[in-house]
């Protein structure tokens, strides 16, 4: 931010004239602050009050020092801090905390031994990571594309350290129920798209609740309800299901049911939905249209902004290796996650699905997928990054490697056996269960969550 200094002095020019003249200027770093509310409802109220009083806000992942994983903070400029505090006081609102939005510095990433074995360009980027500076697109591209073993190892080490210092060394475990494979969309890469000839199913509410009961019994705190865009499972039915899950278990609920209207998202949030996963898939508009022939990029962006505005823990993600994708595309995806303040980022390799136009294409590269997770951790810091089911489907070892390189979450597949083989969004899907999650955590050196009851 440019700060200018002026002085008032008299000058002689056809008589004495007093004027104000620029004496000098200096560039100072503008401060930002993060307001952490006690709950989602309070956060939305505060955000509304601040905006009504002319304070510009942004909703971003909570700061590391808050101790709250995957919560949303309200970001404001430092010049508005006192005004914001007065608004909170006048409305008798007590918040969890207010934190300066500081750079996250990491000392010790560079040593003499490393400096002698890597490029100067990489050292410059690593120095920016140490200092907590934002990376440019070209620097992210370098991290994604380097083939130097020492540099790759340093990227993974930095990502792992950032993970431990922001979200901790505990593996987060979520349980997913794929409750319908009906879908009205025509996404070219997806095995359950409306044009693919597969056996269709819909779980009923009682079947879903039976699985939810099991997840609650083993201590899981979050259930993921995932489906195609199925009109039969409309908003009113989902609201009824959400309320029942909340009443009977109190579990947090993540929805992954596609694009909806603002009013529908709002109704689902009011019913008790906590999180929403709606992947951007790619930020390349042309590629997005290619893989989503009946989709609209601007509509997807709008939905993601609505979810953020409504206070959802907002999930997005991309597919690594989708036909037509470039390294530059992936770098822009990562910057999008950062700029949008995404809380949960699902990064998985492309896996061809039988019956689709891409069924004979090669799968995405495992190493590039893990590298993307690591660089996303470096750029986005305090977010949930799952070691995805798609990655485990290509290699069980790859899921463990990802947990050592910035990922911190595993999603269990809890769809009943009689249905799960028909939820084939891609071929040879790995059915990750609680035993494989525990095995991966131990191999990756992560602690198991204390909420597990096994």
From TrEMBL:
Pfam families, per the entry: BATS (PF06968), Radical_SAM (PF04055), Se_S_carrier (PF11823)
Keyword terms, alphabetized: 4Fe-4S, Iron, Iron-sulfur, Metal-binding, S-adenosyl-L-methionine
Cofactor entry: [2Fe-2S] cluster; [4Fe-4S] cluster
Annotated coiled-coil segments of the chain: none
Signal sequence extent: none
A Gene Ontology BP annotation from the UniProt entry: water-soluble vitamin biosynthetic process
GO MF assignments: 4 iron, 4 sulfur cluster binding; metal ion binding; transferase activity
Domain Radical SAM core per the UniProt entry, residue ranges: 169-388
Entry keyword Signal: no
Keyword Oxidoreductase: no
Entries under PANTHER family matching the protein: 3-METHYLORNITHINE SYNTHASE (PTHR43726), BIOTIN SYNTHASE (PTHR43726:SF1)
Protein name from the UniProt record: [FeFe] hydrogenase H-cluster radical SAM maturase HydE
């Amino acid at each position: 931010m440019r700060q200018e200094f002026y002085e008032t002095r008299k000058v002689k020019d056809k008589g004495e004239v007093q004027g104000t003249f620029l004496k000098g200027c200096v560039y100072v770093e503008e401060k930002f602050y993060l307001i952490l509310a006690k709950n989602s409802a309070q956060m939305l109220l505060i955000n509304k009050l601040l905006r009504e009083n002319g304070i510009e806000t942004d909703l971003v992942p909570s700061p590391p020092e808050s101790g709250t994983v995957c919560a949303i903070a309200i970001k404001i400029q430092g010049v508005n801090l006192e005004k914001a505090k007065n608004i909170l006081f006048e409305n008798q609102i007590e918040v969890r905390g207010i934190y300066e939005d500081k750079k996250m510095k990491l000392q010790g990433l560079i040593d003499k031994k490393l400096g002698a074995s890597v490029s100067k360009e990489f050292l410059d980027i690593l120095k920016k990571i140490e200092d907590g500076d934002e990376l440019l697109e070209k620097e992210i591209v370098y991290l994604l594309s380097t083939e130097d073993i020492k540099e790759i190892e340093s990227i993974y080490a930095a990502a792992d350290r950032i993970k431990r210092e922001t979200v901790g060394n505990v593996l987060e475990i979520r349980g997913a129920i794929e409750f319908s494979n009906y879908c009205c969309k025509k996404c070219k890469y997806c095995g359950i798209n409306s044009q693919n000839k597969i056996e269709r199913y819909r779980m009923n509410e009682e079947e879903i609740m039976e699985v939810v009961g099991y997840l609650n019994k083993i201590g899981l705190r979050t259930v993921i309800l995932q489906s195609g865009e199925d009109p039969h499972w409309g908003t009113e039915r989902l609201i009824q299901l959400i309320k029942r899950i909340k009443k009977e278990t109190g579990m947090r609920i993540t929805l992954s049911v596609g694009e909806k209207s603002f009013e529908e998202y709002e109704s689902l949030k009011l019913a008790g939905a906590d999180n929403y996963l709606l992947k951007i898939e790619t930020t390349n508009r042309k590629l997005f249209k290619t893989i989503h022939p009946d989709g609209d990029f601007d509509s997807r962006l709008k939905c993601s902004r609505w979810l953020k505005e409504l206070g959802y823990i907002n999930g997005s993600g991309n597919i690594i290796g989708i036909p037509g994708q470039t390294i530059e595309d992936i770098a822009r995806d990562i910057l999008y996650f950062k700029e949008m303040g995404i809380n949960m980022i699902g990064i998985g390799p492309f896996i061809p699905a039988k019956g689709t136009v891409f069924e004979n294409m090669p799968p995405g590269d495992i190493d590039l997928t893990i590298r993307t997770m690591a660089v996303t951790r470096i750029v986005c810091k305090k977010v949930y990054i799952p070691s995805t089911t798609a990655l485990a489907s290509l290699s069980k070892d790859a899921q463990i490697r990802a947990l050592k390189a910035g990922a911190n979450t595993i999603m269990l597949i809890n769809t009943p056996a009689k249905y799960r083989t028909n939820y084939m969004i891609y071929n040879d899907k790995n059915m990750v269960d609680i035993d494989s999650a525990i095995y991966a955590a131990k191999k990756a050196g992560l602690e198991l969550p204390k909420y597990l009851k096994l």
